[in-house]
Amino acid sequence: LQAIEHMFYRRSMVVADSVTHITQHLQYQALHSISVAKKRVISDKKYSEQRLDVLSALVLAENTLNGPSTKQRRLIVSLALSVGTQMKTFKDEELIPLQLVLKKLDLISELTERVRAQCDCCFLYWHRAVFPIYLDDVYENAVDSARLHYMFSALRDCVPAMMHARHLESHEVLLECYDKEIMEVLNEHLLDKLCKEIEKDLRLSVHTHLKLDDRNPFRVGMKDLAHFFFLNPIRFFHRFIDIKAYVTHYLDKTFYNLTTVALHDWATYSEMRNLATQRYGLSMTEAHLPSQTLEQGLDVLEIMRNIHVFVSRYLYNLNNQIFIERTSNNKHLNTINIRHIANSIRTHGTGIMNTTVNFTYQFLRKKFYIFSQFMYDEHIKSRLIKDIRFFREVKDQNDHKYPFERADKFNRGIRKLGITPDGQSYLDQFRQLISQIGNAMGYVRMIRSGGLHCCSSAIRFVPDLEDIVNFEELVKEEGLSEETQKAARQLDSVLSDLTRNFAEGTEYFKMLVDVFAPEFRSTKNMHLRNFYIIVPPLTLNFVEHSISCKEKLNKKNKSGAAFTDDGFAMGVAYILKLLDQYQEFDSLHWFQSVREKYVKEIRAVAKQQNVQSTNQDEKLLQTMNLTHKRLEVCLQEFELLYFSLSSARIFFRADKTAAEESQEKKEKEGE
Q1: Distance between CA atoms of 610 and 607, rounded to whole angstroms?
Q2: Where do the structural domains in the chain lie, given as residue ranges?
Q3: How crowded is the C-beta side of 82, counted as CA atoms within 13 Å?
Q4: For the segment 424-449, what is each residue's pLDDT rounded down to a tens digit?
Q5: pLDDT at residue 505 is higher than 60
Q6: Which alpha helices (DSSP H) does 262-350 contain, by range?
Q7: Element (DSSP H or E) covering residue 367
Q8: What sequence ranges are listed for the domain WASH complex subunit 4 N-terminal (predicted)?
Q9: Alpha-carbon distance 535 to 643, whole Å?
């Protein structure tokens, strides 16, 4: 119905042109019939008033027909002819065609009104339940999408009738409810479904490498939803419904919000935007996220507030000065490096550095309390004292090297004391504690490096650090305003702060050693003096853990995989410094003992391999190759730990004992 009405509307110029010609032709036919009848009346010589009235009526009909075919004129013609047809002025075969012509004239003159009345769809108001079903059908077939215009045009036909509503104070209320209802149905049954389907299609197209589900169009069918986007905006009440703009806005909003949640996915969403343009002709807005490459990573404030979580979830790499997330639910692992910290410090100001170190101090206090409890435990303390006594007895026979077997025995023996539900011994937990302490120290080191990085990037605009001019004096000489002098004073203070920070850089490690060392070295904490003898079994435990983590990297299930954990080396170096036990630990010659043990075993295996290669026993050879490989991996891990520990000791000035440091301090004060 609406298509018919629209066709007449679209062709209204042609119709109007044709109607005038048709009207003229019909009027001519009618006039011809009337003129014949008129002649017949005139030719009859009998005069009477009745005959005169008939003649007058025919003349009136003729005159009225000579003009536009309006409603009044047609009414006058029909009245005149009802008088003019008296007295047998028309023959029967003339009258019927005349009546037919006048009927056609009525029809053609009221063509527009008749089409409008016939195509009026106001009855749809009482059958609105059809609308959602119709929309579902349009969405499923997606070929007759252009007919949506007609449907909304039909729904608009209900409005004039609603304007005459009397059961409400104002018909506006009824119109608003109607508008709201239709829009809700449209959103639910078409627009929202379309948005979700387009987003799903884009996602699956971009992630085809994941092989998520069967997308073969021959098997699962295919809908071309692009038809909806070629539709012109649909007018309804005071709005235009633009399906293309609606879907574009939805995708833009979704992609923007999801990119802000996970910035590393920006490339995927850019691909999806390009695909939406190519496949559906949607003109997407560029999100410009991330807007700059200011790599802030995790914020310093965030880490500081949750330092206990941070040190357990992140692993430290000593050489690259970088923290790597232990595990993550995402495809990516977060990393934190000096640049992130520097950017964070630039955001919050350098004052944050001292606060962070203060938080770290609070954290270390809690951890050292647990550390002390572990060392005071009777089972641990008795074993350690036994080991110290044993080493003193056998060191002359063992070339002053701590025996590998003894450390291995301690490592295995401690499992008898109990194991946690996830299979960890007390020594595993102690190693984790030391790693967390080391991670905290690594973080402090990174804060200092980040601070220097931030200062150096700020100070690079100062031409000569040795010769900085005093801006306040220069401004006063020029006699500039008070505001300018104030600004110059501020600039001078900023420059002096920067140069001082850049030149000195606070020795945070020294502070954290000085604050704990007296307590560690006091007589009431004598049980801590046994720490150096637990380091060998601890290193053994660490190497076993490290190898298992690295092996998991090659497996499909990577939970627990890691390639670095230098927090342990940092923690051991820091605690040995606090206890002033570098010399005691060095006296064990532990790493030399390990190296000798593994080299000896590797040589023995190599010797056996040479013997067996002549016997041609494949299985035995394979076993020996695996043994050889395992020994080499263990030796390599110990070497790496030794290098990390040696590097970490440099931060705490391992070359000097506590007595030598205090002597050096006195000499400086004397000078």
Answers
A1: 5
A2: 1-119, 124-280, 300-533+556-582
A3: 5
A4: 889 999 999 999 999 999 999 999 88
A5: no
A6: 266-280, 300-305, 307-313, 338-348
A7: helix 351-376
A8: 1-121
A9: 15
